Amino acid sequence: MSTKTRGSKAPGGPAAGELDLRRAAILEAVVTEYVGTATPVGSAYVARTPGVNVSSATVRSDMVALERDGYLVQPHTSAGRIPTDKGYRFFVDHLAPAGVLGTPQRQRVKRFFDRVHGEMEEMLERASTLLSELTPYAAVVVSPSHGSSTVRSVQLVSLAPRLVLLVVVLSDGAVEKRTLELDEELSEEELGRLSTRLIQGLVGCDLDGAAELVPDAAGASSDFLASVGRALHEIARAEESDQVYLGGPSRLAEAFDAVETVRSVLSILEQQLVVVTLLRDVLDRGLSVAIGTEHGFEPLASCAVVVAPVSVGDNETGAVGLLGPTRMNYPQALAAAHVVSSELSERMNDAFGHHRGGDRGGH
Amino acid sequence: MSTKTRGSKAPGGPAAGELDLRRAAILEAVVTEYVGTATPVGSAYVARTPGVNVSSATVRSDMVALERDGYLVQPHTSAGRIPTDKGYRFFVDHLAPAGVLGTPQRQRVKRFFDRVHGEMEEMLERASTLLSELTPYAAVVVSPSHGSSTVRSVQLVSLAPRLVLLVVVLSDGAVEKRTLELDEELSEEELGRLSTRLIQGLVGCDLDGAAELVPDAAGASSDFLASVGRALHEIARAEESDQVYLGGPSRLAEAFDAVETVRSVLSILEQQLVVVTLLRDVLDRGLSVAIGTEHGFEPLASCAVVVAPVSVGDNETGAVGLLGPTRMNYPQALAAAHVVSSELSERMNDAFGHHRGGDRGGH
DNA sequence: AACTGGCACTTGATTCTACCGACTGCCAGT
DNA sequence: ACTGGCAGTCGGTAGAATCAAGTGCCAGTT
Q1: Which end of chain A has the smaller Cβ count within 10 Å, N or C?
Q2: Is the CB of A57 under 7 A from strand D?
């Protein structure tokens, strides 16, 4: 068709990834500037950037190459360039400076984790807020799924005549409850006796197993026990659906300036299942960033997601994520997500007595 | 100064509230039309409205009066009129047609309440989503505060060596837990003995009382028991802070078209305490609607809030709310909020055995 | 061969003007 | 007490002119 097909001027020379060093520098300059200003970046600006010691004309010719190769686009002729998803991808893979959190933010994290008390649910909830405050993006925290936790305790507590609360404690510290309505009235003593029977029979089973065992364990069968079994099954199902915490939704309204975009992204975040799947998908593919269409989820094509796993014990089932525009400060987001995820993981492992190194101080 | 000072043409005639019947009709027409179209309403449209059988000229002269009295404003000369907060207020107090939910929505509510299972927290959470789906506004649900509930059961469950879970069941069915780390290792038997002692000693107390009683109840004192006491205090505090559930935040992005407004409203909804205070305030003043600045909360001056109480037992401490622009469909919002709130109240009373009439069917 | 300065050109944004249309306020007439 | 008619007021829109940013290309330099 036209001119030179292969664009790199010195294929053998020193390179960052696939790109000429200078072109990489140019791309980097475009990305960082565009992330900061949301304005297409022109060759003149890039030429002034330290690290690019050539004239704007030269930058321009490199820019056409970068555009030909799909790293940059022009919104229209005679505008500056903006990065494509591929451009951002190259940036995070090869150029992103080691993410450094500002010291004030570092402190904020430290204070947070020094102070957290209370239970996991609360910690995760508040961590999502923390994360959204460390960055200008919306945060998502998916609680580690309870995996195959076993029953640690079962108890029946009478709340009112013919109204009983079933409380189940699982080996991972989760507590679930279900109210049961009775047909017949049961005395406190009877409930107590049933409780101890159930405990003895069910401790150590997984939930579904426990549900099956109920009649055997109690040594009798009745409508009531059947409903206990049903409740256990229900709990088992509920345990599988991971909890999602959304932090700082208002950040989305800062990050996007089209109200319609805000609406559609928010409405997606309302579907918790989608969020979980999305994050898990990205993690499963071994990524920590999904840019634009990389996650294959149409409605979020204008978004980037930064994810970090939260592992408790051996399995990485939890996750923290940041959701923002593709025009995102990746180093910052990555740093924030990693700090919070690792700190969370540590906390949750601590809580289980799987103490690790023990040096919770510096690093 | 100028012409007639008293505006009403026939002060003795039949009136709706403070207003001439015709003027009331005009106001009503303006409100309903403006709510629907978000466009200033002109005299010509109003004159065509059934119920107003006068010419546009007459409507115009009434409109100047309505404007003089503060019910309407013109965004600029030669535009139609839009209602003021006072105008909306008059509308909801005197003109709002009995709120009628469309049958599909009615069905939605019915199905929802037929299907809900599981515990209060989940029900409230999902109710907030339901409410936001019944209307185009964001919904808020504040859980009834647990008031002065008493301890129903206390249990210590060992999770790992030196790691114990304290599970407390309250008389209203709430279950709270706290993990405790031990210095010394305690055997299962010892924990069991302590549990039963605690149960015997603390059942029936309120939480703070229970916290004080711990050493007495257990018949001994130790670091461990002290931490149990502390945990109980913590739980008591946590119980006081009511849970807030936010439904359909994306609806805010539909309701407002300035992204900055969306942001600021969202960021307010993130502060749960503020939301609780706001709703309670409105309810305490005996209102079910707060329009614009009526709630005295500056940042929400462009919003209206529709509230309905959720009462469990005798005290109305919970609430459901809808948050939208002052240009809101009040009849619809009121109807939706009332249905959900009363249905929720009923549910929660049922769950406590305070069965009422018993006719859960039609109505 | 690689780079640079210069220049013509393209094109979105901005400003200005003119104009249209939607309403109003007023008034004379019924 | 209402109404029809009419002049007057503005916002919104369309079109033309201008502006400024930034490009692509090319001839010239090192």
Answers
A1: N
A2: yes
